[in-house]
Amino acid sequence: MEKETLEHGLNQNRRKFLSKLSLGLGSVALGSLLIPDFFRGNGGIDEGALMAAVPHFAPKAKRVIYLFQNGAPSQLESFDYKPLLSQYMGQELPASIRMGQRLTGMTSGQDSFPLVGSYYRFDQYGQSRAWISELFPHTAKIVDDICIVKSMQTEAINHDPALTFFQTGAQVGNRPSMGAWLSYGLGSENSNLPAFCVLLSRGKGNGQGVYSKLWTNGFLDSVHQGVQFSASEDPVLYLSDPKGMRREDRRKMLDQIAALNEMSYRQFGDPEIQAKIQQYEMAYRMQTAVPEVTDISKEPDSIIKLYGPDCLVPGTYAANCLLARKLSENGVRFVQLYHQGWDQHGNLPNEMAGQAKDVDQASAALITDLKQRGMLDETLVIWGGEFGRTNYCQGKMSVDNYGRDHHPRAFSIWMAGGGVKSGMVYGETDEFGYNVTDNPVHVHDFQATMLHLLGIDHEKMTFRHLGRRYRLTDVHGKVVKDLLV
Amino acid sequence: MNKTSSLIRLLENLLFASHFFILVLLLGESLLVLPAWFQVLGRMHPLILHFPIVLLLLTGLLQLFPNLIDPPETHRNLVRWLLLISCLLTGITALAGLILSQEPGYGPEEIAYHKWTGLGVFWMASLWYVVFVKEKKGLVLIPALASLLLVTITGHLGASITHGESFLTEPLKKNEPIKVSLEEAVAFDHVIQPILEQKCISCHKATKKKGELRMDQISHMLAGGESGPLFDPENPQQSLMLKRIHLPLEEEEHMPPKGKIQLTEEEKNLIEAWIISGVDFDKKVLDYPEEEAIFQLASLKFNTEKGYGFSAADPGTIRKLNNFYRRVEPLYPGSPALSVRFFGRDQYQTSHLQDLSEIAGQIVSVNLNQIPLAEADLQQLAEFDQLEKLQMNFTGVNSKDLRLLQPLKNLKSLSLVGNTLEAEVLELLESFPALEKLYLWKTGFEESDVSALQLARPEILIDLGFMDEGETYALNPPSLVFDKPIFSTAQTVSIKHPIGSASLFYTLDGSIPDSSNHLVYEGPITITENTQLQARAFAPGWIGSGVTKAIFLKAAHSPDSFSLDFPPHDKYKGRGAETLFDQEKGDLNFSSGKWLGFQDNPFVLEMHFDEPKVINSVTVSLLLHEQSHIFPPVKVIQWIKQEEGEWEKSLEFNPTMPKNFSEPRLDQINLDLNDPKKISGIKLSLYPLQKLPQWHQSPNDKGWVFVDEIIIN
Prior knowledge:
The complex is a heterodimer of chains A (about 475) and B (about 725). With about 475 residues, chain A is an alpha/beta fold. In chain A, about 35% of the residues lie in helices and about 15% in strands. A seven-stranded mixed sheet of chain B has the order 3-4-5-6-7-8-9. In chain B, strands 18, 20, 21, 22, 23, 24 and 25 form a seven-stranded antiparallel sheet that branches.
């Protein structure tokens, strides 16, 4: 920021120089032709790089809905069927499988690692014959519309770094979140709503916090920050006018504030002042757009049945799924949901059933709903957590009560729509469900693939900050072509 | 004057001599062997040529506008001098050119025109000089104009030899996308050849075979040039062509040579990938294996969409058409095809669609979801004859108006969700020749209605959406709305359910409400005693909901002063001791700030009443969650103080410990005073578990005690 304020002085001089130059040449446009960088106020935005990052074909996906299952749902009770674990129940995890994998502080004191099989039954569904556990009956019905990736891998082993890694491409904070990158790269489709919206919900299971750093704009302009919708009567906090204030008065006030802000921008040149003016203006338009979007009273009964009656209770996962569809329908580029409560270190069979019940019907409903509106083709939906869970038990083990610790080496997510192959199961893990044996998909690969689907080359979309270029995928990641239609 | 005229005479003689010299060179072209320094002169041709061009044009200007210089005498002298020098320099340039043309690398046909027009300039300019000196005023303009015309033509022809024929117009067509689709594309013809065309062929072609290499025909490319063949089939990586393009720019042999337009990184990569893949001139891009670089690089160059036959609209027009409620943008940067979206149903007017008539021929996708549409709007839509995707969900369009869309022959995808339609529409839909996807959820159609359409057009994917097939789901439990669960006199409770038509049944006696045992909720309930309220929702078409439960506790007294002997743990300190009497129940989240947590220190609370009171019981409200190390206290002790007396222990016991993990839950410890008496103080001690039981995941850790409320009756 300081740098930009300093540069503002230089810009002033450049501008003066330019006006002389353009007088001399008789045309301002010519001035910009000769020195194309001259009109560029913001040092970081590399439009050339941005243009180069957009390949010359129509992208498959226009929008993303990310159903983040925060806390890390167990792949072994959902999509990765490992009968061997039930067969070897209670036996020690072979060292040849563990291969020195580090442990979290929660199981490092444990002197034995007994394998534990799923308490829940698995069956095969759809034409793809994918295995899905009985905890997800609704997801089983849409299995031919989704692509299950069983070979996800991450680097972090604890929630916060893993979550931050998934969302920003780095385990440390302060980098822009995926949604912010998309807002930056593709802009907003509907200028009356933010390009990046965040919806939170919480299950009864053992939970982990989510923090606003997960939807940060990082070093990008703050207009790209995720806007959190709350479950209260005022979905976007402080958006509505106080009682007794007329809309015309609000307009007048904003005009005056904008004039003041313009003055201070001319003086200091902090680009954040411009961002602030823009945000006030968007908030003004959001005052009419948001109530229109968040109103679910006009949803037909069949939709309530489809998502489940919880979708009428603000703040539930089901309500957030329905809202996500409405936001996406209204051109919001990236809708990020978080459902908390998936951290089953103990009491897994019981807690996981509750969590699955929270999300199963509404997640499947979202796919069905997008599909029937002709929107699934252009909307990428992602379902998954930040890592997987161990194939051995944490804490005391019995057939119907056990826990699983964090496991970064192999876990499952699913994706649907937006140019992803449907009815496919990708990647394979070993019989113990511990290591990926086939087609690993690293978090960076997943990010590269997501950007590709949206028509962005992950290697070319960069932002200069503190003297170097940054990308969502850092210096890694390759597009997983096998997943693309 | 004499001096001047003698100099002029000398120059005139030189001019005459150069005529003779050029004739000799011209006639004896192939017979003469020229010394090396002549070649140096020859190579100066591209340098010297600029002088005669400028001077001739200047002289022409003065000749055509004699009034520019006064008096006429000066004008005449000036023109004569200029003209004479121009002629001489033209001669030297022509001479140099003739020598240069002897060098290898220039094709005879292309040179021929340049050579003869160039000589023409020399001869015509000399004639001009003669006519000028003879003062044939009327005639002088003829050779003058002829010279100017010739010099312009010659200059252009010469530039074409050096820079290539399309040099001037090249920037205009640089960004033309590849016209064929990926399916038809041949790697060489559509990807590699265009690069050669732009960057190589201007020097390596029939008319200018630099290095004896021609790249304008495949047979010549395979033949190679004076340094040998371009490609090495045995070891493609070592092919001459690759070596040359990868040499550093400073190297003599780097191609294209320094000063010419260079290959971009992408172009180098493409050429390299193509050579390594085996120098195939006929292979289609799609026939290369997917993992080969040439496939990956070349396929990126194509639109995966079909190429559009129309040209792009003016970017300024597009920008102008964008506003807060209408977004117009190309499908991707550089595509002529546009997509349009509308937002905000309140803002919409038909004119917003009519504004688009300027770009009617470029629009391929329109999204009007939720926008109210009428006849006039559909009339307008029918003019977008390139339209491929049209979304009109929940727009209120009717069957009659949809007929207006008949002219849209390119329509591939049509969404009509949420509009009530009649059967006649199905015939119309059948008539769209290109239709591939059709979305008809909530249009009133069922499987049987569309079967005829599906039979006639099996290729159309018809989506009728989610059909309520009578499957019944459970309702979600109702919610209870009240101020505080702990009250001193009375509490009002409302029961709410998001589905307005649901019936709400409840009980107040601890039994579970069902069809035979319930009270029907009709309005807010008033509670005056300790009560357990249970409620369920029922609605036709749904399975009855689960139970919502709440416990309401009456707290008749609260102490006038109270204090904790040891502070709660720093992480879970709520609002201190106040938290215990704020009548706010904690929820199942121990870190919500409504709970006080104790681990290292015991919970020791002293309460005092200014006026001694008759106390019947004290209730301590606890949270239990074994997973999170939260257990009941291992020991509970109660002391009381009578009106003037000392503390006396009235109760001590060890609560039962859980034997297993359970869900987080609320619990309470009731401490009844056996015979109620007037009391002025109560003291409670709760001791946390020092070691968690062996069955726990961390058997040696300390346990926690969490307390949120003390209720005194």
